[in-house]
Design a protein that fits this description.
26 strands; Purple Acid Phosphatase, chain A, domain 2; 487 residues; 16 helices; alpha/beta; 5'-nucleotidase,  domain 2; 2 domains; globular
Length: 487
Amino acid sequence: MKYFNLIMFTLILFFSSCGKQSADITILHWNDFHSHNIPWVPTRYNEAQHTVGGYALLDAYLDSLEIVFPGALRVNAGDDFQGSPVCAVTKGISQIEILNAVEPDFFTIGNHEFDYSWKYLDSLRQHLADFPMYAANLINVETDESAVPGCKIFHQNGYRFALIGLTHPQMNFLTIPENMEGVRVADPAKTAQNIIDRLKKRGIQCFIVVTHIGIEGDRELAKAVPEIDLIIGGHSHTYMREAEQVNGVWIVQASAHGRYVGLTRFHIDQGNITSLKMEYVETVAGRLKPSQDIAEIVMSYEAGLADKMNEVIGELKIPWIRSGGESNIGNWIADAFLDAVDADIAIMNNGGIRKNLAVGSILVRDIWEIAPFGNTLVTYEWTGKEILEGLDNMVQKHRSLQFSGITMVLDREKGLIDARVNGKSIDPEKIYTVVTNNYTASQANNYFGLTVDSTVETGFIDRDVLIKAVRKNPIIISEIEGRIVYR
C-alpha cells in the first residue's frame, strides 16, 4: 500500500506541475522610462502636440488595460533611473518609491540603475524597494553567483511560464567602471541557456526573457538561444510598428519615456507561441484620470524643486537636436566646456546628451534633463600624435562624439583624413589640453583606443557649467558648422 501511495503522490506532483498545456497570456510592458515622472510633450511624431505620460497617467493606463485583460503582468525592462532633476537629487529614491506604488511584477535592472554605483543600488533594492529586481547575468565577484534573482515562475490562466531578466553585458562601458565594484556581467546567451536548461527539468516550457541589451543585442540573443519564446527588450528606445521574429523568437520593445504601454498578447500551446500580437497604447493625457496615489508621490517630490527648476534662464531660437554625427546641441555643450576651462579641445559624448529641446524658453529644468548625470569636468593632456591616432581609431570603432576647438574630415572606410585645432594643422609633437566629462575620460579606450594616464579635476559639474553658459548668453542660436565632415 505504501508503494501505491507513493506512486499516487508522485503522479499528483507531476500533473500539478504540468498544469495546463495552453493559455492566452497578456503582458503590459514599458522600458527606459528615465524618470519622466511628470507629463511631457514629445518633439517628434506629434503633430497634434499632445501631452503624454508621467507615472500617474502611465499607471492609470496599466489599471485600465488590466480591466480589459485580467491577470495581465506589469513588466519593466529597466532604466527607470536618470533623466529628471528629481531622480538626480534623490539619487533614484524617487523612482523606487513610485515603483513601489506602481507594483511591477517584474523589473530588469538597466545600465542607468548603476549610475550611483552597484553598492548603492543593492542597498535600495534590499532596504527600500518593495518589488523584486532581476538580472540573471549580474554576478557577485566574490561568490561567483548571481547577485540578484535571475528568474521567476508565473501562473496565468492556469499556465506556468518563466520570466528571465538579463542586463547589458557592456556595463563597464555604459557606466563609470568604479560603479560596478563588486559585480561583473556574464554573457547573456550563456546565462539564458543555462537557466532554460534548469527550468525545463522543472517542467517549464515557455520562456520570456526581459532584457536591457538593446534591439541588436536581442536579435543576437534570439539567434543564439532559439528556445526563448519571447524577448521583451529595453535600452535602445526602439519604436516597433509590430513584433519582430528572429530565428523563431518573438521580440518586442515599447519605445521610451512612458509614451507608450506595450500590449503584448500571445497564445501558447505545448510550449510554443502559436500567435502573438504587440500593440502600442499611447498614454495621451485627457483620456484617463491619472492615478491619485501615484500623482501624490510624484508631486511631493516635484514641489520641493519647482521654483528652482522652472526658472526661465534663456531663449532658444533654433531647436536643439541630437544626432549621431555633429549636432547643434553638441556644439553648444562642447563650446560651453571650452569657455569654462582653459583647454585646446573639448569633447562631449553623445550618450550624455539626454534630450532635444524645442524653440522657446530655456528652463533650469531643461538643462538638468539634457545633462542629468552630474558628471564633473576633467582635463588631461594628449600629444598631437595621440589625438590623430585617437580620431582615426574613433572612426574605425564607429564611435561619434561632439567637439569644440577642433575640426576634422573623416572617411568611414579610410578613417581620419584631416584634423585641425583652432584652424591649424595638428603638430604631432605638441602637447594639447583636452577637457571633457569624467565619464568620457574614463572610456577613452572605448572611444579612441587610447588611455588617459591621469586627469585633473576642475571642480565643475557639467550641468552647472551649462546653466552658467545660458545665463551668460541667454539668446541662443546653435547651428551645425562643419566641425565633423564625412566624405
